[in-house]
Amino acid sequence: MDTGKYIESTALLKGTFFENTRIIITEYNQEGAMGFVFNKLFPRKFNELAEFADCPPFPLYDGGPVDREHLYFIHRRPDLIEGGIKISAGIYYGGDFATAVACMKNGDLREDDIKLFIGYCGWNWKEIDGELAEGSWKPLEGVNLLQVIL
């Protein structure tokens, strides 16, 4: 497994949080793996969170079952948001969140430039590899992934 790869759940995960999910892997190293569900909307919009009430109504995604107290984001605008980590061609993870919010407010960032997540998915070292080997996940290939994700 590599950073920037996309996976989708299989029938083995039916009845779990991960049923019918697609995930982008944003970190993969000896500490484990991290990623975000990018096809599962959260029931509220970004501006429905009290501290962001003055922001545009960008969609929020249910990024995963871990650390649901924090917001995370991926984007394709490193020219606007400093500090992001390139995870695949044209897609960056994180960066200066205050700048991202300001750019959403002033219209420099559009919905197709950024995805906002509540929570994330996390795996211990080699755990995701085992889940792929057992068939819980399969690589997502054969589609324009940049268009799928943003």
TrEMBL record:
Question: What parts of the sequence cross the membrane?
Answer: none
Lineage: superkingdom: Bacteria
**Name of the protein in question:** Transcriptional regulator
**Originating organism:** Chitinophaga caeni
